[in-house]
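Input sequence (362 aa), recorded before submission:
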Amino acid sequence: MKYIDDAEKRIERHKAFWEGEVIDRPVVTILGMNNNAIVHPGFSMLPPASSEMFKWYTDAEWRLKNFRLACDNSTWVGDRLPMVFLNLGAAGHAGFFKGMKNVFSDAGLIFENELDEDNPSLEFDENSIWYKKTLEMAQYLVDESNGDYLVSQSDCCGNADVLAAVKGTDSLLMDMILGADYIKPAMDKIQKAYERIHKEVYDIVRDNNNGASGIGWLHTYAPGLSAQIQSDICCMISPELFEKYIVPELEAQCEMLDYPLYHLDGQEVVRHLDHLLSVEKLKAIQWTRVDGQPSPVEFIDVMKKIQAAGKSLLVLFDTIEEVDILTQNLSSKGLHLHTNFAAMSDDDANEIIKVVERNTHD
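Predicted structure, token format:
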């Protein structure tokens, strides 16, 4: 792969992460600037004005050009692998159903239902521009790779989040409380779309990735079919409703994936942790600090519980001080540390690696 000359060692660490093991230190992914950077390497991940959003999501040639420019300005200290993010919107499989319309804002791409159905039929649309563009972009990125980079899975995740886009979040929450009959069959249809897009994308990228796949925004690498699973709506429901509606979704996705990772989005989701940990085939949990919430170091006990349950743990951090505390208190086995701190240079990144190496332990 381009940009790195130690891919084999990095891949070895990534594989150990999924198995709950450690080679010489935890995986460390650093998205920062090299010492000669002229632009911040994360710029290509930032959506421009909403008027340009369609191009930002769908123009594969433009996206690849920006990815390569970002890589040229990135630090490659640590375990990051060059991987282009196949991103056509979180919960992107919402756009694969008839009656859904896309809406752009400064926050990104979202989908809404223009049919306003009481009992949504959810008819899969093979002619959906978002379905076709997902596959077309995956193929283009593979065709242009020449072995320089990996291509991630799509960012399609969160079946209940898709249903919230179809019904409207307020309506779905009330229907969950009332136990509406349409929810389970609708979730089954959405699961089929989730499985379809991930299997089809994997078929396209598999050879380019030497059989591997990854979650683009987290820069994970797994030696098989891997994708993100999530439920952003779960921060608004009780553990009882999580067990009834979300756990079956997660179990179905873990059955079809070799290396599933749950995106735990904020402290409100901690109340569902016991149900999450009960999903036997869930391999890893990723902790995200939502803006305005405490540092991840405030949740060491929660993270220890995740590790004690045999799940690998991916933690996003912002400072060297945070990574020092995390690596002192957490097991190095099955641990992946990730930062996109804007001011991180090669020199800063090397300091982080020194801290991680010094604190590595069982």
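Checked by second reader. The chain has two domains: 1-37+258-362, 50-73+82-218.
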